[in-house]
Design a protein that fits this description.
The protein is α/β, with parallel strands linked by helices and about 220 residues long. Helices cover about 30% and strands about 20% of the residues. It has 7 helices and 9 strands. Strands 5-4-1-6-8-7-9 form a 7-stranded mixed beta sheet, sandwiched between helices. A two-stranded antiparallel ribbon has the order 2-3. Helix 3 packs antiparallel against helix 5. The longest helix has 12 residues, at about 115-125. It is globular and about 45 Å long.
Amino acid sequence: MTPPTPIAPTPASVTGVILAGGRGERMGGRDKGLMDLAGQPMVRWVMDRLSPQVNTLIISANRHADAYASLGAPVVADTQPGFAGPLAGIAAALSATTTPWILTTPCDCPQLPDDLLERLSQALQAQGGRLAIAHDGERPQPVFALLHRSLLPDLETFLSAGDRKAWIWCQRHHAALADFSHCTRAFTNINTPQEHRLLAATLPASHLLGMPTPPEDRAP
C-alpha cells in the first residue's frame, strides 16, 4: 500500500542540511567547508543563503566538529564508517532532525539559489512524491534535495547494502525535478585549488568577527 502524500513543506517544517562530510581529496585533503573564501569560511556563504529558507540548520561533518559548531549550527557526524558519501550525511541528518522535511546542499556551492526550497517544493506539489531534486538544465543535481523523513528507513537499507550513488537512490523514489536552468552556475562546486582561487576573485571580501581559523589539513 502506497503511503499517503505528506503535507506540502513550508519553511517552518524544513531543516536545512549542509553536507560537509567529505574527504576533500581533490583539495589536497583539506576540509573544504572551513577554507577561507573572500574573508569567511566557505560553509558560511552557504549558511547565509540557506538559513532564510528554512526553520533551522544542521551541518553534516566528519572532521573539525568544534570549528563548525562555532558557526552557530548543530553538527552531526555520519553513522556509516569510512566517509560513505553525501547519502550517509543525509541519513545522519534525518535521524537527528525533528522536522518532517530536510533541504540538503553541499558546503562547496557558495552561490546557492535563494529560492531553492520554493522551487523544489513547487516541483513536489506538481509531480508528487516525497523527494525533489534540482536540475540545472544539463544534469540532475541529487544532493540539492528536498526530502521527507519517512524516507530514512529505505535510505538506511540502501546504505547498508553498500550502495552510495545519490542519483541511483533518487531514481528509486522517482524524484521530482525542479528546473534551475536559469541559474546553472549556482550549482558549480569548488573541488580544486584553482576553482577556489577563481571563485574567490569574483566575490566581495567579507570578514566575520569570531571566524574560526580553518584547519590546514593535509591528505593522509
